[in-house]
Amino acid sequence: MPPLITTYTGKHFDITRPLPEAICIEDMAHALSLICRGNGHVRSFYSVGQHCLQCAREAKARGLSRRLVLAALLHDGTECYMSDVPRPLKEVMPIYRKTEAGLVAVIYRKFLGTPLTAAETKILKTIDDAFLWYDLTYLLDDQPDMPQPQVCCPPDYTVRPFAEVEREYLAFYKHCREV
User: Fold this and answer.
1) DSSP 12-60
2) What pLDDT, in 10s, does the model give residues 87-115?
């Protein structure tokens, strides 16, 4: 049996051979709005979709290019197909990291035209890491081993209905594509 998942929109997605035509923004918005950050080990539900929106708003507030704002929205798009795996676990799963890297390249190629450059990846990683600090602090009552990062858009950890997050994700995507 091939390694296929059936997506929200009814597509059959092969994680070992991700095809751009099988990747769908509606699937991403829906699934990411339902997947909890931190593998669910948080005090209250906060979706990967909310996190992606937060990163995209931060990229926009920093005056980054439309390409990087959209990349920030899409940066965890692999989790739509591969779920949210915490960083410490990813570190001991080389095949997961390899598969994820290949899939994110396909996602960026589909929606941005090309994968991110090393410099673009570094910028997005800085934003993602900043919000990881806030997630650890406010969602887990953990004490990250680094100073509080400065952000333009402090995170909002309000528990929101998934359908609202899904609609906002799609609207933000549409806005990025139209600008």
Assistant:
1) EEETTS--GGG--HHHHHHHHHHSBGGGG-SSS--BHHHHHHHHHHHHH
2) 888 899 999 999 999 999 999 999 999 99
The residue type of 26 is E
- Spell out the SS3 assignment of the chain: CCCEEECCCCCEEECCCCCHHHCCHHHHHHHHHHCEHHHHCCCCCCEHHHHHHHHHHHHHHCCCCHHHHHHHHHCCCCHHHHCCCCHHHHCCCHHHHHHHHHHHHHHHHHHHCCCCCHHHHHHHHHHHHHHHHHHHHHHHCCCCCCCCCCCCCCCCCCCCCHHHHHHHHHHHHHHHHHC
**Hey, CA dihedral for 2, 4, 105, 156, is it positive or negative?**
negative
Task: Summarize pLDDT for 111-140 with one digit per residue, the tens.
Answer: 999 999 999 999 999 999 999 999 999 999
With beta carbons less than 8 A apart as the criterion, state whether 47 and 37 touch. Answer: yes
CA atoms within 13 A on the CB side of 77: 31
